[in-house]
Predict the structure of Leucine carboxyl methyltransferase 1.
Amino acid sequence: MAGANEAVQATNDDASLCKRCAVQLGYWDDPYISLFVPKYERKTPEINRGYYARTKGVGMFIDQFMEKVGENCQIVNLGSGFDTLYWRLKDSGRNIVNFVELDFPNVTSRKCYFIKRNKILLDKIHAEDGEVRLSSTDLHAANYHIVGVDLRNIVEVETKLVEAEIKFDLPTLFIAECVLIYIETIQVQRLLTWLAKTFKSSFFINYEQVNMGDKFGDVMLQNLRARGCLLASVDASKSLDTQKDRFLQSGWDGAKAWDMVQIYGMLPAADRQRIERIEFLDEQELLVQLFQHYCIVVGWKGDTFKDIDIT
Ligand SMILES: C[S@@+](CC[C@H](N)C(=O)[O-])C[C@H]1O[C@@H](n2cnc3c(N)ncnc32)[C@H](O)[C@@H]1O
């Protein structure tokens, strides 16, 4: 089991390297990712475009969530890895009530280490009133918290969220990018049920694999298995419907889902044209296949977020 956990944790290194590469090539701006990932490794144009669509697609829903509630909200990033959203939000002038990141202690301890020794990262956290409290795996500042926890352990998740000063009655955005698929179906179900029950008004953005029942999906599964990584809840990634059902069966009021072909098509045309000029794409077909096998699913609790959409 320890081996399987390590393989899952290592997926963060891969995701971070991919983001770092795409940022360096100019797909989007992120002055912070290189502070967590000093190494530059060239990725294929398909991967870079995939990460662009993912970052912009998720960003589009974050913007809509914030248009609804303003800054009086909190964001909880589940399996956050080395994600830099907290710093990027700050730079965009949005100062929300609370931002909490959860991941395995092995991952959060590395993130805490990077933050501790980097003035640029630390200053943005310090800019809030109050001090920064750090342990080897957790960090607590005025409106930013990182906590080490196994998302399969709901009791521990609750304890850690309370330590992170989360308020269960404040509008809350949950983000999970390529995380739930690594967790067994029953445990995802328990987590989603607990979140739906505990938070009064919330919106969930889940980015991960879809259409995994076909040949392309099989190859993806084999590649991950070869790296020791089981996609433990791949059954929820069969189709957009199974993705939505997971929310509907866990007490969420509604859910919508789109594959990344649809999401990419909804991004501003000028932005797409700009990034399509960055690198020559040899095989358009491969990119389309890749986009067909990832999706964004949103779920909501309460009426505030039900009209959030891709139009
Ligand atoms: C593919 S990475 C994605 C990281 C980040 N969300 C991103 O998009 O860059 C998956 C992350 O989920 C975390 N994760 C998976 N299962 C988890 C669990 N049971 N508890 C806590 N974190 C988990 C891993 O440690 C890893 O950091």
